[in-house]
Amino acid sequence: MKPVKSVTIIDDPQAHEDQHVHAVYDQIASHFSSTRYKPWPIIAKFLSDLPTGWIGLDSGTGNGKYLPLPADRPGSVLTIGLDRSRNLLQIAQHAGSEPGCLITREVVWGDVLGSGWRSGVFDYAISIATIHHLASHDRRKLAVQRLLQAVSPVHGRMMIYVWAIEQDELSKRSIPASGTDGSNHYPITGEDVFVPWVMSQSQHTAKGKFKNDVPSSATSKEVASAVPTLVAETPVYNRYYHMFAKGELKQLTVQAAKEFGLMVGSPESANAKGCRGVEVMQEGWERSNYYVELRRWVS
Amino acid sequence: MVRLITHNLLACHVKGCTTNNFPLVFQDVQVELQVAEFNPDFIRNMLSRLEWTALVNAAKQVGDTSLPPEQPDMMDDELLQKLHHVLMEIHVTDGAMVCQNCNHIYPISNGIPNMLLAEHEIG
Ligand SMILES: [Zn+2]
User: Fold this and answer.
1) Is residue B119 part of a domain?
2) Contacts of B22 in chain A (CB under 8 A)
């Protein structure tokens, strides 16, 4: 098991993200991308179910692995990828290209807390493994509100994925145990951690499989003593994550929606015409992540 | 890449810039044409998302004058082909987009538009 390290955020959340998220992804972009290529099944299904002609936003697109989807109807929808890391965007720009056949994707360099779009212009928005990099509850809430704002008030669909404290046994990571037992304390708070990323040239050649995580308690000296010298010079980058507790993602989205002026529930729950709301279509845990699917509606 | 389909969605988001912040105006652009597969159903269904006049003007700014000034009621195959070309095959690789209201400049380089704002510009 590869432990992650608990962290307390003492500096400004934005400065914390700049140092422990944005700078890290720009450094590790191509190595990171080579290990991230499989779409999550629930998101693939979400994208497959979209009507032809819909336009969407992938907020925090990373290497753009969702931009070519749906695989069974390529080109039936258009997903625009937004990310804070320019180096990842350069990879995302050609996501899904085969050798000799370069396909160009639409990507935008921007912040998930920005709103550089006409309001409500998108039919759908996804935010996969992104909001957990924001270093305060208010910033995570604002990120959800930016998604609510980006999609159509009438039919906009959203899918949000974040890392869970509850990790499955296949995961390489173990999480420090501390008071987050999933019981219904209010408010539900997750865990702030650093997840180490090891840049390793030598491991690039090792059977095409990457070993990216080492115990974060290990100093570079200890790593050096355990493995060949080449690795001794490879830097370790600590990525910041807020790992979500059970129930926290739904609580966050409901709070974000209410403070955004939306009712939360089914369209039938509205008691008047012209009310604006959002419905939680599904929520759950899949392979160490929590997800929630939302739809906006007008009664 | 900034294709015109993307340009038609983007708006200025500088703090306080909430009127006349769309469309952004292309400036000093370099354009590249890339053939894309024609999907008439996609074009037909997505058209209602677009602001027609903004599209026609943006196309002119990148040197394409094939679209009629008013959106026709009937979409025949010839018009869908033209729209496909304008929306999906013209790539702005370098240059900038400028807000007509606050004059903020959003640079484009290597096909990637920079919509990041400085801390004090964020609304
Ligand atoms: Zn402006």
Assistant:
1) no
2) 118
Distances (CA, A) of A176 to A35, A57, A187, B5: 25, 34, 20, 46
Is B122 contained in some domain? no
Q: Which residues of A touch B113 (CB under 8 A)?
A: 108-109
The answer to whether the beta carbons of residues B106 and B98 sit under 8 Å apart is yes
Query: Residue A170: pLDDT above 50?
Result: yes
Between the CA of B57 and the centroid of ligand 1 the distance, in Å, is: 18
Could you tell me if the ipTM is greater than 0.95?
yes
How many Cα atoms within 13 Å fall on the side-chain side of residue B117?
18
Residues with CB under 5 A from ligand 1 (ion): B 12, 14, 17, 21, 99, 101-102, 104
What's phi and psi for A223, nearest 5 deg?
A: -60, -45
pLDDT at A200 over 90: no
Q: What is the CATH number of the domain that holds B26?
A: 2.20.25.10
Which tens digits make up the pLDDT trace of B73-119? 888 999 999 999 999 999 999 999 999 999 999 999 999 999 999 87
In a domain, B43, yes or no: yes
Residue A7 Cα to ligand 1 middle (Å): 38
What is the tally of structural domains in chain B? 1
Ligand 1 centroid vs B97 CA: distance in angstroms? Answer: 11
Does residue B81 lie in a domain region? Answer: yes
Query: pLDDT band at residue A222, thresholds of 50, 70 and 90?
Result: very low
Query: Could you list the residue range(s) of the whole structural domain that residue B64 is in?
Result: 2-114
